[in-house]
Each structure stands twice: as C-alpha cells, then as structure tokens.
Amino acid sequence: MSELNNLQPKEVFDFFKQICAIPHGSRNTKQISDYLVKFAEDRNLEHYQDDVNNVIVIKEATKGYEKSAPIIIQGHMDMVCDKTPESDIDMAKEGLRLGVDGDWLYAEGTTLGGDDGIAVAMALAAMDSSELQHPRLECIFTVDEEIGMLGAEALDMSHITAEKMLNIDSEDEGIFTVSCAGGVTAKAFVPVKRAEVSGKLYKVTVGGLLGGHSGQEIDKERGNSNIIMGRVLYNIAKKTDIKILSLGGGVADNAICKKTEAEVIAADGKKLEDAVKELDRVIKHEFKTADPGVAITSSCEGDKTVKALDADSVYKVITYLMNSPYGIQHMSMDIEGLVETSLNLGALALTDTEMTAMYAVRSAVETRRDALCDKLESLSAAVGGKVEYSGAYPGWEYLADSEMRDTSVRVYKAQYGEEPKIEAIHAGLECGLFAGKMDGKIDAVSIGPDMTGVHTSEERLSIPSVERTWKLVCEILKESK
C-alpha cells in the first residue's frame, strides 16, 4: 500500500487512483462523467456536460499567456473491461484493485484503464496546478471511444475555440502520432438470377491464409481469399462452363479474409480440377513469403440438380471480383512507410437474388477515400449493382507545417536528448473525428506513456514513463506561449 501512496508524479497518480476507484467501462460512464463535473465545480471552472456524458472543462490562461493560442488536452474516460476467470470483481459496480510490480502499475485480475485514464489524470493535474504555466486549456473528455468513438462523434464543438490539440491516447513513449486514416464501410450489391441446372457439383476452397487487421496488416501484402477466389473462378471459367451455387467468405469488413468457399456445377470436372491445381501452384509461388500457408483445393460432391446462377449472373459475379480494387492504393509521400489509402474486401456473400461485397475503405486524405468509393460505384454499376455506405469517420491528414508538432519535438529533444519518432497510423483515432468537426483546422499531436497488454487483464502502465511524459506535457504547455 505504501508503494501506491508514494507514486510519482503525485499530482497525476492521485487523480489516476481516484479515477480507478470509479467504475468507468464503455457505456458505464455517468459516474466518471459526474466526477469530472464536480472537479470543475469545486474549482469554479467553466464546464459543459452533454447528454451522452462527454465533458468539456476550460481553464483560462495563466499570467503572460493570455494572448497565446489555446490548447485542447484530450482523452477518453471509458476503459475496456476485461478480467481473468478467477477475478471476483464486478467491473460495472466496483473500482479496481491496484498493485505495483517494480516500475509497473497494474490492476489485480483486470484491465487497468491506463488507456485512457492516464490522459484524464494528466489533464486534471494540469488544471489543478497553481504553478503550471499554460495558455487557455480546453480539456475534452469523451465517452465510449473503445466501442466506436461514439462520444467524439456526438460532441458539440461550439464551446471549443482552440485549433491546437494535445491528445494523450498513445501507448509508446517517444512516438508522436501525427496523422490517422479516416474510413467508411462500403457494401456493394450485385443482382443475380438463378436457374435449375444439373451436373457434377464441386466445392472450391481458398484457405490457409494468415488474415489480419485491414488497417494494421494491409501493408504486409497478405492474401485475401475473397480476391483470390475471383481469380480462381475466372480461370476455371476460361477452361469450362460453370454455374455458381454458393459463394462466401469472411464476416467483417475490417478483417483480411482467410477462407472463401464456392460451390459450382462444372461442365467438365477434369478441366476444373486441373485449373484449380494450376492456380494453387501459381498462388503458392506468389505468396511464398507473405502468406506461405495458402492453399486452393477442390472436391467433387457428386451429381446434383440445383438452382445455380444463370450464365449472365456468373459473368457479372466473376467480372466484379476480377476487377475489384484491393489493398494498398496510395502510400504517403510525407511519412515513409505509411499506407495513405487502402481498401479490404472483408466479407463476401451470395443469396438467391444478390451477391454482396463488404469493404473497409481507409484513407488519411478524404478526397482519395471518396475517389476509391467512386471506383466501387462505377464497378458495381457496370454489372447492374449499387453501393451503400455506413459508419463513416474522417481522417486526420498530415500537416507539413505544424506548430504543435514542432513545439512538441523541440521540447522532447531538450528533455530526452534525441528526436522522437514521428508516426502515422492507418486506422481511426478520435483526432480524426475532431479534424472532421473542425473542417480540418486541427494542429494535433498524440503522445502517451509506455503501456503493455492494453485491453487485457495483463495491462501494465510504466510509472517512470508517466513521470517523464507528465514533464513533457508540462513543458509543451509552458513553451506554447
């Protein structure tokens, strides 16, 4: 217990321990939201709480900083609730049981919520301090980030005047995130018709692939079984007439599909089998490094009479899949190695009346995301189909000229004696939603202390890293004059 009482920096960890004593999982944020409101009321700080429990707290500039540009400090108040099978804690009703293991803070048997409770604690410590020098602080605490950034999406920004933001939701000290992808789920519909047909029925399978997250692993050139299946069906159809009975692979737009199956009636079974064997050899060679486990197989299920796609529908389905864009479309010219624009055909399905293809479309540049959607619409229209969209979220475009980044880098270099790593991610962050709400007028940097095992019961927060990151935050504010 004495270790918990002596954590440094005390001003940050005192607030963090208070936060950990309050249940604050996603969709269970009313209590922590009210705690933030009370913090503001006790200090006579301007504050706003909305219907979904987002909170904004404002502290005016200290002496000498009245004319300095205001800064947003931003983090989310919800946490992922995960626990071991042995844990008896009701995370919806009870606080966490904290422990210290050397330089690491943890919660016994549960997630710790360092993601993103440490951001909330640092923002509160900054506003609570009577010694810290800073511009006007506009602290934004959002809810339900962990289940789709719902709080940031709902937030009314009319109370915000700042265009500079310090987001504290990164998990690697020394890495500054300065851009993220926006995205949208696109679902293409291709109308089909069926007719009764008899013949030998074959099951064709593309499998053995690694899969992965379509944002984090799209640059690894792994195979997508839905895309490969289009190529397989095209090559079979070149050798023999086929009618497609079933076709499907994947369930989520943002997962690189690992297995796709098709059932087809083939006019010449031997030619189908030969085409599959040849494609298996070719694809194995093409993916020998990126996805060495890939396998394409076929098996005969006997003579059947079924309602399969008619010839025109087979043509439309194969044409669509053969021409579907996939994978990396553009690399960033500003940040080496960063995927700027991509898409993933994550889920493919066939019903009696339509084929559906569901994509995760991502880009840090909104116009390029839109152009990719236009390409999907054009392809779908060419085969008599359409595209519908859902779940759109804006990207955070890299700024070549960023005062916030320059100040943060300068302060980091003075404190650490080395340059930080400047990074962008090909996935969504709350910064992207704020950029969208502010018409792109956001000059932001995302930082944070070292954490491990985030979102699991093995979560750990580095105590020395918190101390260094807190010092960095204070100096960034001080230097933003």
TrEMBL record:
What are the Peptidase M20 dimerisation domain coordinates in residue numbering?
208-288
Entry keyword set:
Cobalt, Hydrolase, Metal-binding, Metalloprotease, Protease, Zinc
- Its top-level enzyme class, in one word, is hydrolase
> For this chain's UniProt record, which GO biological process terms are given?
proteolysis
Molecular function terms, GO-annotated: metal ion binding; metallodipeptidase activity
Extract the Pfam families matched here: M20_dimer, Peptidase_M20
What EC designation does it have? 3.4.13.18
Give the reactions, separated by semicolons, that this protein catalyses: Hydrolysis of dipeptides, preferentially hydrophobic dipeptides including prolyl amino acids
Q: Which domain of life is it from?
A: Bacteria
Q: Needs which cofactor?
A: Zn(2+); Co(2+)
> What does UniProt give as GO cellular component?
cytosol
- Protein's UniProt keywords contain Metal-binding: yes
Q: What family is this?
A: Belongs to the peptidase M20C family.
Q: Which PANTHER family match?
A: CYTOSOL NON-SPECIFIC DIPEPTIDASE
Q: What is this protein called?
A: Cytosol non-specific dipeptidase
